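Entry 14. Structure prediction run on the chain below.
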Amino acid sequence: MTNTRPSNSESFSGRRVTVVGLGHFGGGVGVTRWLCAQGADVTVTDLADRDKLAPSVAKLAGLDVTFHLGGHDEADFLHTDLLVVNPAVPKDSPFIQKSQDASVPRTSEINLFLQRCPCPVVGVTGSVGKSTVTVMLGAILAKRFTTHVGGNIGGSLLETLDEIRPDHVVVLELSSFQLEDLPLLGVSPRIAVVTNLKPNHLDRHGTMENYGEAKKNIFRFQTPDDVLVLNADDPPTVAWAKEARGRVAFFYHRDTEGTEKEPFELLLPGSHNQTNAQAAWVAASQLGVDRATAAAALKAFTGLEHRLQYVTERDGVRYYNDSKCTTPEGAIVALEAFDPGKVVILVGGSDKQVSFAALGEALARRAKCVVALGATQDQILAAVEEAALREDVLFTAPDGLGVFSVETFEEAVALAIGHAEPGDVVLLSPACASYDMFTNYEERGRRFVELVT
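Output returned:
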């Protein structure tokens, strides 16, 4: 599959550009560095102050950038030639609204890259599993092509544009926040992969319908020559096949007769990773990769930091860092990767306005011990208690389920370690975002690793 969409040769030399939201994940840094290299007059504005953004600011040292941190100046949004808005910035920001009313052009880091990328792009989105599928897919494609992996999973690929050739392949993890801006461009990836659709980010999108509509942008602007890869076992997204403008390919964990599809040999625990592997393989096959090549790449795949990452074993207890898990569905999947009654799990964090009913039942059925913390701890524990009142829910722990509420992360880890016995697993799988206690999930995961090693 070759790329026939023209790249954008728009010049930024001498143009005033405001980057809204520097952030901590690299996109704001990458686009700022790239814009400076193009000769733009760049202003970076963020509501967070310089101290909180110190690591990102340090990466821009030596560049001719104007910083307005710790608050916004309306002039930066109105007296500029272009706004480049970080995906995390809410679309209902009054500053964004005023710039729209003044017809100030707006774009995003991902849109700037997609406009200029000379090779085929494979986009991956979904509520659960998109990071793992993205990196699995990148590993498979690297067996056949020069492959570049980026998007939500890492820093900006804008600075590597000069290295990307038409016969290369780019794999992008795309969040719903990033996908919201694709209508500004009217372009979708040549191959679009959707892992599933579960309740998530309802604090941002408001409703599941709005959340789903944002996700659909990954294929909404495809052409008849493009491909949409869907999960045959996920009813909400299976229905999207009817809206596809190109060809649809499905991946399966189980076929219609209920038997497992031929599994891949994986180092990663859990049946969900078989599903992730099947998604990556089906997407790679659209670019002509054979199954043997995919199997070899997947056999060597060791997983991702903060995504059900094996950390260590101490005194017969294994420790796993799944800090990237910010949804109840993700935590359920992580629980199911281990034997019932053997998991001491840390859950809780900031509130994204989602239900914890299903998680409460899963914890009651499968966990040995639940340590809850953060802004959502009361909601999660209430869901566990409600599930425990139902006669059909049986606790798996020999002496009943241990349920604890704590104030600090350090206290939570210490309590989890204290309740784990040889043969058990201590699992950080919060089911929530980290912003009530940490800058991001990476900081939370690193702190867990420090405390258990």
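The longest strand covers residues 41-46.
Filed with the rest of this week's runs.
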